[in-house]
């Protein structure tokens, strides 16, 4: 910038005025008015402050870009952590629903097994009672049918035989009645078929008994599976709690880091606002100096466009015009000093 200004305004700089390293220097062997010296000092200070503020502004812009990048990374990590937590909650809910469904099925199987076992046990007791009755009846008939050889009891034996015969006839009649009732109930007239049906029913009862035993075995197996599933669910819950604790700790660290970065960003924003305010004041001061020294902005109106105010983009143009105007004023002051010295 300084070299460009030096080259641009070299025709207007006298031997006793030099622009070195962005500072306007006056020759020491010439007498100048205090106003000119004070204006030169203020102008040099303004150029130095402007350079420092521009460097600080560039540094703050880089810091802000770095902070925005870190903030985006932390936000992405936070969203990933939240997504993992949601997935874990869904998995735990699904495992709990499966556990409830398995327990419901197990309870239904237990209830059905108890009902079937009760019905089959009652049927088996009834059949056993009938078998015991028939066995006792056969034993009784066998004992009654034995021939007794006691001579003095022939009459009694005959009477007993008669009674036995009558009893057997009554028993046969009763059995006949029972058989007829069974035929009427079963709808089967032939005894062989009825006997075959009874044997078939007995086989079915035995098959049902075996089925009940199988159900009990399946219930025990299901109970073992349920216990194993409970153990797995408890282990998964424990793992989920540990994982959730780790994620919570990580989220806490991320929140702390985000808070720290936010505070840092706020401080940087405050510095940036302060710098912008200082820059605005500098631009306003440059504009005041521009008006104070009565500079003409006609050469740069086409470059400025619609805005004629001093901005960060057009400040160098205004400074160039101010520098040129100051050089003109310095030449005028030197000329007047020479005239005064000659007079």
Automatic annotation (TrEMBL):
Residue ranges occupied by any ODAD1 central coiled coil region domain in the UniProt entry: 36-306
Coiled coil: 43-112, 143-171, 212-239
Entry annotated with the keyword Coiled coil: yes
Keyword field: Coiled coil
Pfam families xrefs: ODAD1_CC
Protein name as it appears in the record: ODAD1 central coiled coil region domain-containing protein
Source organism of this protein record: Timema poppense (Walking stick)
């Amino acid at each position: 910038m300084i070299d460009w200004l030096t080259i641009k305004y070299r025709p207007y700089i006298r031997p006793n005025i030099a622009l070195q390293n962005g500072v306007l220097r006056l020759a020491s062997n010439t007498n100048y008015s205090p106003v000119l010296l004070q204006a030169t000092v203020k102008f040099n200070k303004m150029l130095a402050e402007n350079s420092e503020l521009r460097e600080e502004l560039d540094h703050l812009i880089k810091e802000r870009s770095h902070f925005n990048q870190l903030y985006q990374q932390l936000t992405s990590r936070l969203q990933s952590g939240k997504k993992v937590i949601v997935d874990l909650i869904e998995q735990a809910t699904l495992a709990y629903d499966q556990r409830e469904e398995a327990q419901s099925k197990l309870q239904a199987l237990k209830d059905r097994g108890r009902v079937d076992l009760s019905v089959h046990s009652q049927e088996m007791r009834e059949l056993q009672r009938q078998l015991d009755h028939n066995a006792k009846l056969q034993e009784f008939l066998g004992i009654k049918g034995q021939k007794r050889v006691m001579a003095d009891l022939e009459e009694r034996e005959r009477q007993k035989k008669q009674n036995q015969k009558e009893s057997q006839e009554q028993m046969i009649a009763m059995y006949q009645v029972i058989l007829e009732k069974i035929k009427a109930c079963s709808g089967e007239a032939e005894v062989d078929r009825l006997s075959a049906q009874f044997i078939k029913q007995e086989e079915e009862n035995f098959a049902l008994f075996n089925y009940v035993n199988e159900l009990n075995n399946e219930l025990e197996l299901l109970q073992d599976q349920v216990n194993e599933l409970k153990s797995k669910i408890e282990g998964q819950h424990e793992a989920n709690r540990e994982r959730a604790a780790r994620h919570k700790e990580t989220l806490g660290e991320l929140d702390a880091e985000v808070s720290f970065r936010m505070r840092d960003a706020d401080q940087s924003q405050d510095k940036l606002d302060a710098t912008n305010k200082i820059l605005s004041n500098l631009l306003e001061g440059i504009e005041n100096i521009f008006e104070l020294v009565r500079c003409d902005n006609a050469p740069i109106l086409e470059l400025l466009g619609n805005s004629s105010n001093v901005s960060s983009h057009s400040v160098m143009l205004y400074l160039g015009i101010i520098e040129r105007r100051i050089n003109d004023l310095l030449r005028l002051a030197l000329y007047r000093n020479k005239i005064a010295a000659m007079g």
